[in-house]
Amino acid sequence: MTDRFLVPAYGPDEKALGIALQSLGILGNKYNSDIALVVPALKHADGTILKRLIPEQQLKELSKGKTLLFGEDNIPLSMVSPLTLNKTRAQVILGVFASKKMINKIESKADLKAIIILPWAGEADIKEWKDTYSPTILESNEKT
Predict the structure, then answer these.
(1) How far is 99 from 58, CA to CA, in rounded Å?
(2) What distance in Å separates the CA atoms of residue 35 and residue 77, rounded to the nearest whole number?
(3) Taxonomically, which superkingdom (predicted)?
(4) Would strands 35-38 and 75-80 be described as parallel, antiparallel, or unpaired?
(5) pLDDT tens-digit series, residues 56-104
(6) Helix locations, the chain, DSSP H
(7) End-to-end CA, the chain
(8) What are the beta bridge partners of residue 38?
(9) Quick check: pTM over 0.90?
(10) Mind listing the domains of the chain with CATH numbers?
């Protein structure tokens, strides 16, 4: 059984990304699993909003295929693209800037314990997935 979560976002939303990353760490700890970020393209990751929440040097290392320790619990974190997704042993995945194609690729990976989706283009790319799986919505209660 795979738990599914959605962090609503429309474009580069730093608060939503923060919620998604925090949730990734919590779920990795809960399932005693490595965690992975799935990004559209590894070579462009350091030019995205990710650099606001992940130190630049760590982001560069992740984009080169290195595994780093994440959070207070030192959970192994890797970063992959949809093309290299099957190379990760992580069972907790965060699809960053997830498109319909990326979501379908993530869903096709066997043995996942949890999936977090952080969309880019709003409702269009996630509608079918959302209707099919009714993911738990993760969002901040804070007013900005």
Answers:
(1) 25
(2) 5
(3) Bacteria
(4) parallel
(5) 899 999 999 999 999 888 999 999 999 999 999 999 999 999 999 999 9
(6) 14-30, 50-53, 56-63, 100-107, 127-133
(7) 35
(8) 80, 95
(9) yes
(10) 3-137 (3.40.50)
